[in-house]
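User: Can you help me understand a structure? I only have the sequence.
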Amino acid sequence: MPMPPAVLRLAVTAAGLLLTATTTTVASAAAPPHAAARAAADATDEPTWTAPLSTRGRYVVDAHGDRFRLKGANWDGAQGSWTGSGSAADPAEHHAGQDSHGIPLGLDRTPLPQLLADFHQLGINTVRLPFSNEMIHSTSSVPDSAVAANPALHGRTPLEIYDTVVDALSRSGFAVILNNHTNTSRWCCGVDGNERWNTGQSTTQWADDWVFMARRYATVPRVVGADLYNEVRRDVLDDPNWGLGDDHDWYRAARLAADRILTEADPRLLIVIEGINWTGVPVDGLPHGRPVLTPARTLSHTLVDSRKLVYSAHFYGYTGPHHSGATGIGETHDARYQDLSRSELAAALDDEAFFVQEDGRHYTAPVWVSEFGIGSSETNPAARAWFGNVTDYFADHDADFAFWPLVGFEGHDDWALLRYDGAGHRSGILDPGDWRATAWGHLMTAPGRTGPVASVPLWRMLDTDHGDAVASLRVRATGDWDRGAYKAACPDGTRLAGLSHTGGRGLCTDVGAGDLRAGDARQTVVTDERYVPAGGDWASGYTKYQCPAGQFLIGYSLRGAGVSAALCVPARAGLPGAGRTVWFDRSDNRPADAAGGDFAYGAYKGQCAADEYAAGIAFTTRVGSRPGPAALLCRGSQLLRARAR
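Assistant: Let's start by predicting it. Here is the structure, written out as tokens:
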């Protein structure tokens, strides 16, 4: 979320100060009174889309496979508005003088049905709805003054009011994406005790809260997504990372929470994973920057449902690729995004986020810019030019987006698209004279893809860097198939297509024939050469773990760096075809088109062609040789050839 440039965003990091917020949380509230909540919001609108949402390549699609472009805005407040200094009871100590009381802003000024009607006038179809973990557990009711325009909400807790808002948005036709914005109910995003998902709480508790929230709204039809955590960033002492396997590993934590949501709570939901917002100390001469989604190039997420992943990024003009957004302490000489030319800005957006939309890669997914924005009173020509350039980029790239923020108080937050005074009168971007309206109108009306989106081949990465990578629900249901080893299995519907010689990486795909697997639960764990037929030595001098006839590879396991087992499953139809040996112990051996992308950066890799399936892994146990996979047995199939053309 934005902070005025005059406010020190990461300045306290440079100064070496730690701000701590003391909060008390209690047990989770009871189940939501959805039936009662509906009485408070009777505004309805016939939607032109059908939930749930999923992904096809770079696009989000609805239940019919039609493109659903996330054209949204952020209705903030439930994440907290206290700035962390002074008395939380003093509105002046809240962001922009707006005390949200831990609920979405505006309910004190305008009836909920009118708010929804105003949202529809903007043309948005999606609302990102932030919340804090503290809000989930609070049992104190909000003051009646906080919901003065909605008296039916008197006596409710913040979570119960959140229930009402979620139900009302869904009934009115909006797609609702829940966003865990903060741990404690206070304004984000500096060194504020909310830097990481597990600042002040365990990763397990954080994931438990997500399961609670996803279950709570599992029956609300248009709750379509879980945006896992907002602007993961450095605290005073430590950086977050992407893949180191420690307690600050955002890559691992996001995958853990995502899979728990999809398996324990609501398999319908899109899983939104934001990039890392900041690492390093913002001082000239010291390493610092905004990684955003760049780590996904070499380490992308594979979830138990491969068509639910959406990546996310935030862009504000006063920040930059290496600029924290601060002025004074914490300000460096790095360029801000608003200092970049139009072409330089486009290159930065491509490099930091939109490369993810490239077709046919292990990281391919939709990119949602879930925060960007600017104030209506902005007079800086560079900032105004940035807003025009960035909205043009989003329009030209048919991007998914969400403006920050949606609602504010008149005379307090000029960033808001819609502002309301104490009597409920509306002003903002829909009125003449708001300079942002031209760029906003262009973004909202620019042509983009609509209608059916054809299915595209899926490519997903497996990694055993720090533990198991079993992405198949069917395999998970069978239990531990190689106890004590690191295990990897492709998501259901895909097959193993490639392996790395070192590092334990794998590549999965459904290219060609789609899901090859038979409908039953059979699987074969291969730990010796019993299925290598006489006269069929396809890797002389090497140990070969080969699938039984009619089966193909979906997984593997490792003990240390050495191959431990191959996991095979039967095909739904015959898989005839001659085999060939693809060696990769001394160099890469992949198809010329490099489909799937570099799934094991820095390691030798082998990969079967699009019209082949993998049926065996060869490796050596010779002293002095690397024990990792050295060759794949790749077999062609008429079924695959026909569909890969």
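Now, to help you interpret it: The two ends are 46 Å apart (CA to CA). The CA atoms of residues 43 and 113 lie 5 Å apart. Let me know which part you'd like to focus on.
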